[in-house]
Amino acid sequence: MIRVRKSKLRSLKFTILVLLSSAILVFSHRAIAQPAPTFEASVLSEINQVRANPKAYAEWLNTQKRNYQNNILRLPGNERVLTHEGLSAMNDAIAFLRTAPTLPPLSSSPELSNSARNFGKIDKKYDRISGSVAELRSRTQKTSKATVLLMVLNDGDRNRSVRTSLFQPNYQSAGIACRIPLNLSQFCILALSSPPQQESRPTQSARQPERPVQRAAEKPESIAEIEQAIVDETNRLRANPQAYAAELAELKQYFQGNLLKLPGHPALETQEGVAVVNEAIRDLKATAPISALTVSQGLSLGARDHVLDIGPKGKAGHYGTDGSDPFVRINRYGTWQGSAGENISFSPIATAKWHVRQWMIDDGVKSREHRKALLNPGYRLTGTACGAHAVYGQMCVMTYSKQYIEGNIQGRR
């Protein structure tokens, strides 16, 4: 779980972007000249110029095609870069910019810059903040213009996560820290923030045991079955919260201290024991019936992307290996509006009922964000995906949105 400092930015939806261009330097790594003290300001100024006039930037990019030699990009005054896609990434960027809307400039935030400078220490040093957090990286070039050019090209990333983040219209403030040493190279880290839009933020399931046992789930449902079953189970909970409270009460007999010993399943270690179940029961009893969720194809595909990404790698959390957050993923296949969220559950017990119960109980999650998502009357649409997880056996992702405009997904998968 990414953790950052508590500050007066708690009310902001906060995104840290450590911008990664997947371009690879051809030469052996060597020390890069130290940027001038105003380098960060120059990078932000360049980003704002791109946001202010993307069409003009597209035409300037068109003049840079001459700097390609096959897949090698030789930017004047900068190191040569071996790209993955060659000219195709630049052509894609030009096409994107020619239709991109004009955006207001990002204001400079010293607090966000301080957060960016502490990249790499976030997990250990700071408490969790409100909002989404994503990590993307971009190598620092010798000039700010070349640094931003690589961000816009976003070579090698089929989802163009960096470019998408730079052109998110809701971002209003930014902080930048450059000369960050990572893997013998230097990077720029960009921290962006926007006013709150989401009614609830994404949360992963309660912390699993530190050394989980890899084992097959007993009587697992098929992937297609469990995905629909999770939607059905969620809607059953929302339709009659009081009845669901009675079902949760039956779990209490299987607690022995902090261990939950369900018949036919391995013992599960909880953090809060039966107390958190009692709390969930109280919340359900106090909740009026909620309208059912309707399945969205785009939301389901966004959930599927995350399962296919982190499941085989045994990773956890809401941020993909490409740095994408839940909102970026669901926007690949449409546009969410109003509010959105994501729940993730990891478990060797591969049944829909157990995944939904984990979210409702929300053991070890102080904010109870899983529970809030299930009981959020503002959510009208959902998407679900499940799959194998290399460490925990199975994972399921459920995405939510108040409104969602389905995109044209033909040929995108």
Task: Give a nutshell description of this structure.
Strand 11 (about 255) and strand 12 form a beta hairpin. The strands form 4 sheets. Strands 1, 6, 7, 8 and 9 form a 5-stranded mixed β-sheet that branches. A 5-stranded mixed β-sheet has the order 10-15-17-16-14. It is elongated, with a radius of gyration of 23 Å.
Derived from helix and strand composition plus strand pairing, the structural class reads alpha+beta
The tally of helices reads 14
Give the number of DSSP strands.
17
> How would you sum up the major sheet?
5 strands, mixed
Helix content range: 25-40%
The geometry reads as: elongated
Architecture overview:
- This protein has helices spanning 39-52, 54-63, 87-99, 110-117, 122-125, 144-153, 161-166, 223-239, 241-249, 274-285, 297-310, 326-330, 352-361, 369-374; strands at residues 13-17, 24-25, 68-69, 72-73, 81-82, 107-108, 138-139, 173-182, 185-194, 203-204, 255-256, 259-260, 268-269, 294-295, 334-347, 381-389, 393-406.
- The chain has 413 residues and is α+β, with helices and mostly antiparallel strands.
- The strands form four sheets. Strands 1, 6, 7, 8 and 9 form a five-stranded mixed sheet that branches.
- A hairpin with a 2-residue loop joins strand 3 and strand 4.
- Helix 8 (223-239) crosses helix 9 and helix 9 packs antiparallel against helix 10.
- The longest helix has 17 residues, at 223-239.
- The relative contact order is 0.15.
